[in-house]
Amino acid sequence: MRRSSTRKTASSKATSKELERIDQLFYSYANRSSNLIDPEGIEVLCSDVEVDHTDVRILMLAWKMKAEKQGYFTLEEWRRGLKALRTDTVSKLKKALPELEKEVRRPSNFVDFYSYAFRYCLTEEKQKSIDIESICELLDLVLGSQFQAQVDSFVEYLKTQNDYKVVNMDQWMGFFRFCNEISFPDLRNYDPELAWPLILDNFVEWRRAKHS
Amino acid sequence: MVLHKFGEKLYSGLVSTMTSHLKDISKFIEAAQGGLFLEELNRKWADHNKALQMIRDILMYMDRTFIPSTHKTPVHELGLNLWRDNIIHSSKIQTRLLNTLLELVLRERNGEVINRGLMRNIIKMLMDLGSSVYQEDFEKPFLEVSADFYRVESQKFIECCDCADYLKKAERRLNEEMERVSQYLDAKSEVKITNVVEKEMIANHMLRLVHMENSGLVNMLLDDKYDDLGRMYNLFRRVPNGLSTIREVMTSHIRDTGKHLVTDPERLRDPVEFVQRLLDEKDKYDKIIGSAFNNDKTFQNALTSSFEYFINLNPRSPEFISLFVDDKLRKGLKGVSEEDVEIILDKVMMLFRYLQEKDVFEKYYKQHLAKRLLSGKTVSDDAERSLIVKLKTECGYQFTCKLEGMFTDMKTSQDTMQGFNSAHGADLGDGPTLAVTVLTTGSWPTQPSVTCNLPTEMLALCEKFRSYYLGTHTGRRLTWQTNMGTADIKATFAKGQKHELHVSTYQMCVLMLFNNADRLSYKEIEQATEIPASDLKRCMQSMACVKGKNVLRKEPMSKDIGEDDVFFVNDKFTNKLYKVKIGTVVAQKETEPEKQETRQRVEEDRKPQIEAAIVRIMKSRRVLDHNNLIAEVTKQLQSRFLANPVEIKKRIESLIERDFLERDNVDRKLYRYLA
């Protein structure tokens, strides 16, 4: 007879000491009255880990925490993130960032991160789309390193066209599929008969007109 | 002899005797000169037949007993075979016989009279000798020679005749050949020889005939040459692709003419003319297909598809057809019998069926109907209703329920007015009379609400009506539509001229101001009435700048209305009639900006319809791929308008955003309905 026992793997084990330190770290950045880490606090955090607050790795950190509101971290989210990264000090956090980036960029995780990035930017209740300006920044931030050429071209299109003032989730995800499946810059295998979001049909048409 | 077992001897004796006899006859026939050749042959054949009969009778016993058991050829047949072998197939006769026969046929074709009886007998002889004899010794060469003959002749004709003449000649030749067969050839040859004529004279020259300059198919169509067209139809239907050739040329001609018709700027000036021309064109071709083309269904279909093609080339067709109907219902059908009214309305319905954008027609029809109803300008209530019924039959209840609502409102308003007048009639005394039509908002074409200050004389009365109405219909909201009303004003001018002026509500408001002032500036009028500037300017123009209607005088006398213009009553106003109509509430062709606006409204209206169709389809199918969804949506909306695939895609994406649908995670082409 085998006795079943719960095995705690190293990554989920956190001693009470570590948890205490994580909480302490939280309060060192948190706003006294709201008990949340607000944008100011995040900026301090960023300079501590020596990463610019517009850097994609902060977004990745938010993803790891499953943070809901852009610019804010709750205690619960903070605990979740740092426990998962097995860090409880600033220096450990700094060292964990490259590993985190690798993890996020794994294809199995990246889609989730990509869609998270969009949702994270929806600030208002019931908001479903993001303005063009912000989308362009977000695209560059999230996909710039992987698909620079496509991002640059699409951003140029978005800035010059007049049909769309905002981009929604469906279009956002569509662009990611586009980058992964369509050969660039020739766009040879793009088939407008398939159910690509209309904004991408228009993008392709614009590109073809521009480069003909 | 047979009985005594000498059958063999008898038989072979018969054979040899007959053979040698026939050889003699053969020489005799060969010797015949010229025309006598056939006659001799004929005579000898008749003799031979008689002889054969006798011989058969005499040798009947042998025929019945010896021959069957030895499987020898029966006597009669033997006699025929021997004739065949020794006479017909003799080297000196065979060719000569054929040539003679063919020459006679040629001469007859060239107009000579020949001895048909003799021909008949000779041909019958060949047929009696066996169908293979007839075919090999006559029919086959006959057909070949005929083919050559007609090839040459058709070439000659086509060079010098016009299409109609050529067809007449071809028809004549065809009939000739059929007669020839019935007179002296085997009936089975008819089909074969007619095929030859058809091929050589018709099939080989089909395209050249159809496209012949100045006399070809198109010219015949233009000139309504029913006989010639009928002849062409009957001849061409005999050959492969004959009718489809005619049909194709006719179709492309109709499409070209139609395209020219709908895009010619001259024609587009008068919508009523435009539509009348379309109806005339349809009538013309209906007549042609009926009289000349045997009411052929495929031709009717070609006509329909051509009309569908070019009517929709002009985006204003729906508007123009509605204007045509408006013209007819306002005055065109005056004095026309009920049957004829039905005929005209049915023709209009037929054009309506060709329209792709039926929803655009509906929008205009509603506008025009509203104007007709409100101005009381319809020739016949029955005709109006009849057309609504036809539209309902064609498009369903949805299409016409609002239109019917408009009629109901008119009737109800009459009842309301009766009630109002009997309740308050006494109070009104000498004051102005009011006739109100209450419009249910959803049924009538949408109008933006406008400001307009009614004159004091009217205000009290209007309020009385409002409270009367709301007294019986609590919970409703009434808004005066001052841009749609009319008024009749009695006016007395300085020199004593009295006139009754029929004006719009706006114009009435302006004119009433002059009861209390001799001169008014444009600005003062604008302030007092609060009528929107563009409407006010138009209304002032029609009262001050149009000859015969200038009840007002303007300083300066320019045609345009300026902000600083001043107006006076025109003391010198004259008009032959007592009742003067100023201000039109009549339906007209829209101006460019109005047209754009209507088109925009139509496009806006289409969006919810497309969405409803998408949701309906996805709800029942649950999962569907992109292309099929587009196809189904298009099909569902076909009876109202042609849905644009890009627009459908936009609506799908909007529905995705609002969580009615989602894309499948794995197969990007699939959509899923979210309950």
TrEMBL record, chain A:
Q: Which GO terms describe its cellular component?
A: ubiquitin ligase complex
Name a biological process GO annotation. Answer: protein neddylation
Q: Which Pfam families match?
A: Cullin_binding
The DCUN1 domain, residue ranges: 17-208
Q: Name one GO molecular function term.
A: ubiquitin conjugating enzyme binding
Entry's PANTHER family?
DEFECTIVE IN CULLIN NEDDYLATION PROTEIN, RP42 RELATED
What is this protein for, i.e. what is its function? Neddylation of cullins play an essential role in the regulation of SCF-type complexes activity.
Q: What is this protein called?
A: Defective in cullin neddylation protein
From TrEMBL, chain B:
PROSITE patterns linked: CULLIN_2
| MF annotations from Gene Ontology | ubiquitin protein ligase binding
Q: Name one Pfam family in it.
A: Cullin_AB
The protein's matches in InterPro entries, at most eight in alphabetical order, are given as: Cullin, Cullin-like_AB, Cullin_homology, Cullin_homology_sf, Cullin_N, Cullin_neddylation_domain, Cullin_repeat-like_dom_sf, WH-like_DNA-bd_sf
Limits of the Cullin family profile domain: 316-544
Q: Which GO terms describe its biological process?
A: ubiquitin-dependent protein catabolic process
Keywords annotated in UniProt = Isopeptide bond, Ubl conjugation
- Family membership, please give it: Belongs to the cullin family.
> What's the protein name?
Cullin family profile domain-containing protein
